[in-house]
Amino acid sequence: MDIVLQQLVNGLTLGSVYGLIAIGYTMVYGIIGMINFAHGDVYMVSAYLTAIAIALLTFFGVQSFPFILIGTLIFTIIVTGAYGWVIERVAYRPLRNSSRLSVLISAIGMSLILQNYVQLSQGPNQQGVPTLLSGAIRFHVGDGFVQITYLKILILLIAFAGMGVLTYIIQKTKLGRMCRATQQDRKMASILGIDTDKVISSVFVIGSSMAALAGVLVTLDYGSFDFYIGFIMGIKAFTAAVLGGIGSLPGAMLGGIILGLSESLFAGLISSDYKDVFSFSLLVLILIIRPSGLLGKPAVEKV
Amino acid sequence: MTQTDISYKKSGTDAIIAALMALVVFGPIMGIVLNGYQFKLSFDRVFVIVAIVFVGRFLMSTFFQTHRGKMMAFRYANNDDGVTVLPPNHKSKMVWIIPLVMVIGLLVPFIASKYVLTIVILGLIYVLLGLGLNIVVGLAGLLDLGFVGFYAIGAYGLALGYNHLGLGFWSMLPIAAILAACAGAILGFPVLRMHGDYLAIVTLGFGEIIRLVLTNWQSFTHGPNGITAPAPTLFGLEFKRRSAHGETFHEYFNVPYDSAHKYMFVYLVLFVVVWAVLFIKHRLVKMPIGRAWEALREDEIACRSLGLNHVLVKLSAFMMGAATAGIAGVFFATYQGFINPTSFTFFESALILAIVVLGGMGSTVGVVIAAFCLTVLPELLREVAQYRILLFGILMVVMMIWKPRGLVRITRRGFARKEGVVK
């Protein structure tokens, strides 16, 4: 019983992180219909940026946790957003009128570039950040107990705040309206005077910022990372996006949480060695059985 | 020559913006190197790369304002066209090149040193993989990112068949091809009716599942510790110094023992198999099924309207590709003598994809050349080996923008009415 509850707590935090990264996949797919294969590696870059920001801030004598957290978040989100913009500008915009296969191969190339670039710049070793916030709340359940660290609570709060801000931007602001218009019909939107190139760029920046948020939170929680983490995280976040219905924002969040919960339960109750196999099999199964996901609209194919 | 106005002010602004972005992007990651919880500064390389970006962007911006640049930009935006059709009376130079390559290829094992021979074998294995993936990606237009999964099935098929069932190289060669093709069919059948991008992700997931199972199923596959694979035999003669079962190769032919004999034999068998695959592929492309693959790549909707069963056509391409990868896997295992799951990561799939992309989608000659370039060159240039993946990545992005159909375009013989036929 306590294992199940503990895994539910872990799964919820993990799932909210998957949801944050899945937003990047789902928004890009919704607007230009491509799988941004390099998105997982953008998340990996943000993990490195987090460690760099923390190292810089502690070097300049900032000691209190809230200041470090806010400083790291701002720095990481700005620089990762710049990565998103540059990736779109360099690797995807020249291919706007090419076949989907070309764009996808270009994205895979970008993913390899990012991995190797970070490996060459920062060295192949695992890196880490110091534990900045420790302590936990414990509940006694039966014989055992369930432990919720303060950091996990923080992750949930920040992740949901991030999703809330994003929902506000998409639903209420001018930029959000332009995004939704471009998603519905790119050609019509550009006829009506929307600079669709700018909208696509801003979608990449927003997606990358959300990945940066996830990168900061996971790095603070796990403490260690290397240049290869983006690959597995990317596939899982993509699974979350597909599970929720690709192209749908609430779907990405819901899919992330469902994936996180089911994966944690599988790891806790059945086998932790095969938890990645479980997630990938889930991905294959969803795509075969219900490719439109939980909240997505079924794609109408013209024949 | 038309004179066009070149605005250096525009080039300058473009360059400054690009340099500023480069500073933001490269500055933290390249300039501040993590060292434990501390950091070291190395801003010299950041300045070098920002300067390169500044100058490069300035030149590019200026060039694209000239008449020639504008024409080039227009070509890049519209260069996704199909196959080049040759005139009907075109004579291929291949008639001379093929026998020449065959003779040189047959002489290689007797001239080359053992080290060179092992590299050439590796190159040939990648030729086989490239040809297999070329059927799937190049001809049928299905992006398969889990190709390494079939390669692993072939390699582990040999190793596991040997350790658990006592099967040797020759019996596993066809069995592995069939196994891989079956795996391709099982994966492909439900998956191939869906959208192209989803196929890429599902195959990627499949490749990773295979690798994770091979790593974690320790009692069966020995997990990350790896497993031994048998060497091939010549009519039962083993290429060993001493054999428990009867005579060995050097005893039978009464020659001194040389460890290179095994590689010479593997090379010769592999050489024959590669030619056989090349031949089969060459004929398949001209057969109705090959035409159907290419037609489906160019326009799926039109093909389905004309009554092609798109699932079966795609499935046949998928299975052919998988079987080729299975054969390549058997050769890889027997050549290494020992395999473990680290040889079958996603990077391997990306490398094979890079071979196909560089060589030209659907082009056989291009893929053979690209396979040798991408596997043999890194072996010879050890100093740049660490930049290998970076270069592959840049290659993939640049090729997609510059020549999305690869360096060697697919060509097809044109047809014309024969002289003297009554109109």
Per DSSP, the total helix count of chain A is: 11
Distance between the termini of chain B: 46 Å
String of helices and strands of chain A: HHHHEEEHHHHEHHH
Main β sheet profile of chain B: 2 strands, antiparallel
The count of DSSP E runs of length 2 or more, i.e. the number of strands of chain A, is 4
How large a portion of the residues of chain B is in β-strands, by DSSP E? 5-15%
H and E string of chain B: HEEHHEHHHHHHEEEHHHHHEHHHE
User: Rg of chain B, please?
Assistant: 25 Å
Characterization of the model:
The complex is a heterodimer of chains A (303) and B (423). Chain A contains eleven helices and four strands. Chain A is mainly alpha-helical. Chain A has a single domain (2-289), classed as ABC transporter involved in vitamin B12 uptake, BtuC. In chain A, the strands form two sheets. Chain A has a two-stranded antiparallel ribbon. Chain A has a two-stranded antiparallel ribbon with strand order 2-3. The mean pLDDT of chain A is 86. Chain B contains 17 helices and eight strands. In chain B, the strands form four sheets. In chain B, strands 1-2 form a two-stranded antiparallel ribbon. The longest helix of chain B has 27 residues, at 260-286. Chains A and B meet through helix 2, helix 3, helix 4, strand 1 and helix 9 of A and helix 1, strand 1, helix 8, helix 13 and helix 15 of B.
Summary?
The complex is a heterodimer of chains A (303) and B (423). Chain A has 303 residues and is mainly α. Helix content of chain A is 73%, strand content 5%.
Blueprint of the fold:
The complex is a heterodimer of chains A (303) and B (423).
Chain A lengths: L1 H31 L6 H21 L5 H28 L7 H23 L4 E2 L7 E6 L2 E6 H23 L1 H11 L1 H6 L4 H27 L1 E2 L3 H16 L4 H21 L5 H15 L14
Antiparallel strand pairs in A: 1-4, 2-3
Helix pairs in contact in A: 1-5, 1-8, 1-9, 1-10, 2-3, 2-4, 2-8, 2-9, 3-8, 5-6, 5-8, 6-8, 9-10, 9-11, 10-11
Chain B lengths: L7 H24 E4 L2 E4 L1 H21 L3 H11 L6 E3 L7 H18 L2 H26 L7 H19 L3 H23 L4 H21 L1 H4 L5 E2 L4 E2 L2 E2 L10 H4 L7 H27 L1 H11 L1 H6 L4 H27 L1 E2 L6 H14 L4 H17 L7 H15 L8 E3 L10
Parallel strand pairs in B: 3-8
Antiparallel strand pairs in B: 1-2, 4-7, 5-6
Helix pairs in contact in B: 1-2, 4-11, 5-11, 5-14, 5-15, 5-16, 6-7, 6-8, 6-14, 7-14, 11-12, 11-14, 12-14, 15-16, 15-17
